[in-house]
Amino acid sequence: MKTNINIDKITKRTFCIAVIGGMICLTACGNSQNNSENSSSAEVVSAVGSRTDSLLDSRVTLQAEAVGYDNGQLTFVYDGKEYTLAMDSELFEHDEKYVNGKSLSQAIINNDIGEVISAEIVADEGITKIYSCDVVSPNGEKYASGMYEDIKADVPAEEYDYKLCHKSGSVYELSNANRTITADFNDLEEWQKGKYPESADDVMFGGYLFTDGKFIIEDINLLVAVNDDGSKTYEPLTTSDYPSFFGTVQTIGDNTAEIKLTDGKTVCTVPTYYCDGELSEGLEVMVILDCSTDLFDSGKSESFDYAVICTDPAEYDPSGHEFGNLAYAKADSNNLGRFIYTEIGDIEK
After folding, report:
1. Fewest CB atoms within 10 Å of the CB: 144, 193, 266, 307?
2. Residue 49 phi/psi, 5° resolution?
3. Rounded CA separation 170/186 (Å)
4. Which DSSP string corresponds to 88-138?
5. DSSP H helical segments within the chain, as ranges?
6. Which residue from 337, 233, 199, 216 is spatially nearest to 1, judged by alpha carbons?
7. CA gyration radius for the chain?
8. What's the confidence (pLDDT) of residue 155?
9. In the prediction, which pLDDT does 38 show?
10. Do residues 246 and 326 make contact, with C-beta atoms less than 8 angstroms apart?
11. CA–CA separation, 236 vs 203, rounded Å?
12. d(CA 138, CA 120)
């Protein structure tokens, strides 16, 4: 994926909502019978409209605290009482969907940076059904580098390019002349959790900026070329070139985990800073490693300084393979959020 940016222009993301209004046309007829029928129809329309207005009037807007969103259930606190109600993710307002099916709103609610999330929820009067939920507007704003920069004449243009600096684990710092943003790259989708450098001089990124300056990163692209016309080409770092193995967590250490592969004899000790959920001993996981597929069935015990752990392998497997039969997988070049699987029985001995 390549992104061409013209450095002479600042491109702003514009979010547009098209509203299509409906028109009801009533035609009056000349004879008394038709007038009578029209009168009857008007009464029916009026009655239906009255019932609709009544239903709409029964809806209330709650200023609540969103506590969690998982498996189609929204948990929130309103007026000192906690509620957990079914809610389709399509009911999130101002949302963005990710490749893995999760969303920006879910990331905001389930954040692990200590943010208390305000939510504007439209529900019925009895608070038994949710019609919509907005956590994007009340807590901050969507942010993309290059948007709304405070340009000063005495500051060189390149000072507004964001620079990348590795802090520790999956935590990086993004800074330019205007601001410094700290981002946890574990917030990225799994296919974007590549091997990022210790530093880089020019990056483009986007995400969600809380009102207190904390940040959830959604995407990042690194500069790879400056073109003859002055535009710049950016590309993401991905996991697409790395194989994914399957195994069971044996032990959990200090920021590391020991995983035995499905061959029953190969053991990998990996860092846990890129992990999409909670680890526990005995948990079946998928782990992306920077190595050859020859690792499988090697019987080796190896340590790695880079790994991406996926705690729910089925999330990436629409075909429903049997976990114990899987040897490894590679990202589908047409859909980096999905994988092409190799079963143990398919490997030539």
Report:
1. 144
2. -60, -40
3. 6
4. -GGGBTT--B-TTS-BHHHHHHT-SS-PPEEEEEEEETTS--EEEEE-HHH
5. 32-57, 104-109, 136-139
6. 233
7. 26
8. 83
9. 43
10. yes
11. 10
12. 8
245-263 per-position pLDDT tens digit: 999 999 999 999 999 999 9
- The 3-state DSSP composition of the chain as helix, strand, coil percent (nearest 5) reads 20, 40, 40
Angle among Cα 139, 310, 293 to the nearest 5 degrees reads 145
Distances (CA, A) of 332 to 221, 238, 242, 340: 20, 12, 11, 6
Measured between alpha carbons, how far is 340 from 321 in angstroms, rounded to an integer? 11
Amino acid present at 1 = M
**In this predicted structure, what is the pLDDT of residue 158?**
85
Contact 347, 327 (CB under 8 A): yes
CA distance 281 to 339: 25
Mean pLDDT for back-to-back runs of 10 residues, the chain (349 residues): 42 32 36 44 44 66 97 97 97 87 91 95 97 98 82 83 96 94 94 95 95 95 95 93 96 97 98 96 97 97 97 85 94 80 85
